[in-house]
Amino acid sequence: NAGVTQTPKFRILKIGQSMTLQCTQDMNHNYMYWYRQDPGMGLKLIYYSVGAGITDKGEVPNGYNVSRSTTEDFPLRLELAAPSQTSVYFCASSYPELAGKYEQYFGPGTRLTVT
Amino acid sequence: AQSVAQPEDQVNVAEGNPLTVKCTYSVSGNPYLFWYVQYPNRGLQFLLKYITGDNLVKGSYGFEAEFNKSQTSFHLKKPSALVSDSALYFCAVRLMEYGNKLVFGAGTILRVKS
Question: What per-residue confidence (pLDDT) applies to A66?
Answer without folding.
Answer: 97
